[in-house]
Design a protein that fits this description.
Length: about 240
């Protein structure tokens, strides 16, 4: 069994996968990590599946496995939960297929997890320069959401909406995850926080594809993000709707 399972959810990412896998292999080999890499194809309409299959033999250090889901698509959260169900590593890292995440920080994340953190997450708001690539409207949404988290949960969380996370797989799966869409991203830190788990935020920078398929869409995700926070607040005040 590998120490860490790297989950890469994909939707029409054939053009991004080769470069991402090449970067990832450099990080894994340089740090001598024991990994499995699970490429999760969510009924892509391009050559994502064939591209992933062609990369398996070329990058043995990554132990690439492929999970292919068929339509109808169920969303980012469903794909991550499906990938974790197939994972065998003690830890799981969630990685964007477009290469936007600072994957070179993987050894640092893993060291924090080995020291007892149940969740290690990138925080793009610790240093001013890390927030520069974030579009202005996204920055505004993030600021409003952080303010709501402080108000309802009493937690001054700097970045609840970054998807570059490393989790203790057993701990997080034991808590249970419900979200089907991108709202899984804040659901995980909220649950770890409310359960008394240890969370470590690491300053980092993320690039953005302004017209990418996986881009956050406010009109589609705002209600789901709000619902996750509402359920967290209800749990905090004693209405046990969460676990």
């Amino acid at each position: 069994m590998p120490e860490i399972s790297i989950l890469i959810p994909c939707l029409n990412e054939a053009h991004c996968l080769p470069a991402l896998i090449g970067r990832l292999e450099q990080v894994v080999v340089a740090a001598d990590l024991d990994v499995e890499t699970i490429v999760m194809d969510d009924a892509s309409e391009d050559d994502t599946l064939a591209t992933a299959q062609s990369l398996q033999q070329c990058h043995p250090a990554l132990n690439i496995r492929i999970v292919h889901r068929f339509e109808p698509r169920r969303g980012y959260g469903t794909l991550i939960r499906y990938g974790m169900a197939h994972a065998t590593g003690r830890y799981c890292l969630f990685m964007a297929a477009d290469g936007a995440h600072p994957i070179e920080m993987l050894p640092q994340y893993l060291a924090a997890a080995r020291n007892g953190a149940h969740l290690v997450q990138c925080s793009r708001h610790e240093r001013p320069e890390d927030a520069e690539p974030i579009p202005g409207n996204i920055r505004l949404y993030q600021a409003l959401y952080r303010s709501a988290v402080r108000l309802l949960l009493g937690w001054d969380i700097r970045d609840p909406t970054c998807s570059f996370k490393l989790v203790d797989r057993v701990y997080v799966q034991a808590l249970g995850m419900r979200s089907a869409g991108l709202s899984l991203i804040p659901e995980i830190p909220f649950k770890v926080f409310l359960s008394g788990g240890r969370i470590e935020f690491v300053p980092g920078r993320q690039e953005f594809r302004r017209r990418g398929i996986s881009q956050f869409r406010f009109t589609r995700e705002a209600s789901a993000y709000g619902y996750v926070l509402l359920r967290s607040w209800l749990h905090r005040i004693g209405v046990r709707t969460w676990f």
